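Lab notebook, bench 4. We co-purified these components, and the gel suggests they stay together. Before we commit to crystallization screens, I want a quick structural picture of the whole thing.
Request: model the full complex, all chains together.
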Amino acid sequence: MFSNKIGLKLTFGVVLTILIAIGIFAFFNIQSEKQRLLTEVERHANQLSDAVKSDTEYDMLHNDRERIHESIHRIGNQEGIDRVRVFNKSGEIIYSSETAEIGTMVDQNAESCYRCHSAGAPLERLEQKERARVFHPHEDSPRLLGIINPIYNSPSCWTAACHAHPETQTVLGVLDVTIPLTEVDRNIRRSQMAVVILAISAILILSLIVGFMVRWWIDRPIRELLTGMKHVAGGNLGFRVKVKSEDELGMLARSYNNMTENLAEARLQLFQSDKLASLGRLAAGVAHEINNPLTAVLTNSSYLLKRSQGQPEMSEDLQVIVSETIRCREIVKSLLDFARQTVPKKRKADINEIIGRAAKVIENQLSMRQVELVMELEPTLPDVRVDANQIQQVFINLMVNALDAIGDNKGTIRITSKTISLNPTGVLQIKRALCPKRHDLVDRKVQIDAKPAISMRYRQQKQTGIIHLNPMYGSSEHRLNGMPAFDDSTELLCPDCSASLIVDGELCPKCGSPIYAFEVPLKGLVKGCLHEGCAWHHWKQVESSWDDEYVEVQVIDNGCGIPEEQLPKLFEPFATTKGQKGTGLGLAVTWGIIDNHNGTISVKSELGVGTSFIILIPVGT
Amino acid sequence: MKQKRDILVIDDEPMVTRSVVKICSAEGMTVSDAGHASEALQSLEHYEFRLILCDIMMPELNGFQFLEELARRGIHTPVVMMTGYSTVENAVRSMTTTGAIDYIPKPFTADELLTVIQRSLRCATLLNDAESASLTRRDAMGYIPCPADYYKLGYVSWARMEDKGTAVIGVSDLFLKSAVGIRELELNQAGEDLLQGISCAEMTSSDGEKHSVMCPLSGRILTINSEAQSTPSLVEKDPYFRGWLYRILPSNPASDLQWLSL
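Here is the predicted assembly.
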C-alpha cells in the first residue's frame, strides 16, 4: 500500500529528512545548553571557593582555628552549598562544615583527591578549569559539583609566627567546596523538554505542509492522470484529463490529452480501414467468381459487335453491353485496388466526356422516374489526369444518390462543371491551433458557420475579453465581441495560459500593425493581422505548396435533403442515410477516389430544399 | 508424328472455354479445349499446339503446377496465363515462370484476347527462330541483345539498377518485335507511383492494337525520357539505351528483384 503511492513516498522522504535535521539540531542545542548551565555553575562555585579561601586566609596565617571553624561552618551551611572542607596534604580533614568528618582521613582515590593523584606523582599545580568535578556520592542522590582549590605555600605562610609549614612544601592543603546540582539539573531537564516539544511540533507542522503540497501539486494531478489512463485503457477515448497547472505535470496532462485525441482519430481511421479491409477480402472472393461469367459476356458481346458492323441499330446496343461490361470489370478491379489502396490508373481525360458517359448509364432510370437532368458544362474545360472509370463511378454514385433523394416526386438533377482558380483562402479549415505553450485555441463550444472557432483573449489598457476568429483560413468574418480598435497596445493572449500570441519584431506588411501567430500541428505557423480593415494573413507552408487551378463539378438535386446531424458522418463507410436500401459504401468509395486524385468533396444540404455535392480536382496533377 | 493445331485453352469454367474457342475459330485458328489440367495433358499427347491458354485457379493441378508438369514432360509449347483473380503476384509469376510467356486478366474482350494471342504467337516464332538459328544469323535478323546486367521481367520489360539507388526501366526488344511496330506511346507522369506487374505504359502498334507494358519494378517516377515520348520509333531502334522509358526511385527493390532474371 505504501510502496505504490508516490505522494506518500515523497512525503516520507521529506519528513525523514526534516526529522534527521531537526533531531541533530535539537541534540546539539540540548548539549550546548547543558554545557552552558554547567559552566555557569562552575564559575559560580570557583568564585565561591576563592571567596572562602580569601575569607579564611587571615585566620590561617594567625592560626586561629576557632574562627576558621566558625567561618567554614557558616559558609557550608548556606543554602545551595552542600559542604565546605579543608584537608591537609596527607589527606586528613582539618576543617569541615560537617563537624563529624573532622579528623578523618580521605583516601587518595576519593573523588576529591583523584584529580591530582591519578598520575604516579601528584600534580603540584591545578588549572582553574580542571578543578571542577561532577559526581554522585551514592546512586540515588542528586548530582554534586565539587571544586577543589589547592592552598599553595607562600612566604607569608612559612614566615608566619606559628611556623606550621616548612618552606619546601608546595601545596599546604586543599579547600573542597561541594555544590548540589539539583537546580541546574532541573533547568537542564526543562530546556531539554522545551527543545524536544519544539522539534516535535516543527516536524509535525512541516510534515503537514509538505504532505499538503505534495498532495496538491503532485498527488492530485497524478491521480487525475491515472484516472484518465484508466478511462483510456477501458476504451473511453473521449475522456480529457483536467489538469490546469503550467508545470511539467500540466504539460504531461496536455500532451496526454493531445495523444488521446490523436488516438481517437487514429482509431476511427483504423476502424474505417478495418471495414475496408474486410470489404477488400469480400471483393477479392467475389471478383474471381464474377470475372468468369463476365468473361463469357464480354468476349461474346465484343465478338458480336465486331460482326455487326453493317447493322447500326444492333451495334449500338452491343456497344452499350460491351462498354458496361468493361465498366463492371473496372469496378471489380477498382474495388480490389481501393481495398488494396493502390494508385489509380490516371490518364488525361475530359471531365465533360466522363459526365456524359455517366449520364448515359442512368438515362433509363431518369426517364422512368421522370427526373430531368440538366447539364451546364463549360466547353473549354482543361483535360485533367484522372482514372476515368473511377471518376465516372463517382458521378454515377452521386447521380444515383440524387435520384434516391428525389424519390417519387418529379425533380431535377443539375450537373455543372467549370474551371476555377482557388487560393487556400476560404477553402482550408484550421482544425487545430496551438499557443506557444501548446494549448489548443480551437474552442469546440463556439462555432462560426458550424465550424469550431479559434479563441483568443485580448487585453487593452484595462479592458479584457474573449474574441473568436473564423477557422476558415483567410476569412475575416471574426467575432470580435466588442474588442476596441486594434492598436500597438493591444495584447492577444492564450485564454488558458495567457501566453502572448503577438509576434515579436514582425509587423503586418500591409498596415504595419503588430501581428498574431499560432501553430497548426505539422503544418507550420499561421500569421494574421487584426487591424481594422486590414485582413492580411499568411500561412507559408500552405501558400507555397498550393495548386491554384481546379475543375469544379457540382451535382445538385432538389430532393429531400440530408439532416444536419448526419452531414459530418456522410463520407464514413456504412453510414447510410437510406436505411435498408443503401450499403453505406457509395460515398465512402467516392470520397476515397476523390482523395486518391488529391481532390476534395464537400456537401451542402438543406432539408426539403435539396443537396449539392461539390467536387474539386486539381488541374495540375 | 503428332497432328498440328493452333490453340489449346484450359479453364474449369466451360463458358470461358466455349467463348475462346468460338472467337479463335472465327479467326481461322484450330482450337481444342480442356476442362482441367489432366484433360489438357491427354490432348497434348495427340496434338502439337502453337500456344496454350491456361487458367491459374483450377481444381487438382493449378496453372503453375501445370507448367511444372509440362517442363517435366519436355513440352516447350509457350503458355499464356489467364486469371479472374488478377493480383500483382499472379501477373508477375505468369511472366517469369518457365514456360509462360504472357498474362491476360479476365474478363477480356475478343480484341484483347486476339491481341495477346497474336503477340504471343509472334513471340513464340521469334523465340523458335532464335533457338534454331546461329549467332551470326541472329545478328543478321536484327536482334538486339539485352546487356548482361539488366534485370528482365519475362520478355516484356527490363530494369537497370544505378549506383545512386535509382533505376532505369524500359521495354524489351522481343516484346517490341512481337507487337509489330510502335505508332504511339503513352507514358505516365513524373511523380506518379508505379507498381511491379501493373501496366506502366501503353503502346499502340502499327496494326492498331493496344499493348500494355508490364512494369518490372515498383517505385516513383523521377524523370521521363521525353525523347522516347516524342519519337516512339526510338524505343524500337535502341530499346536498351536511348529508348528507355522512366528513371524511377524503387520503393521495394529487394523483393521486386527476386522475380526478375539477369
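The radius of gyration of chain A is 53 Å. Worth comparing against the SEC data before the next meeting. Chain A has four domains: 6-187, 254-342, 346-422+546-621, 442-543.
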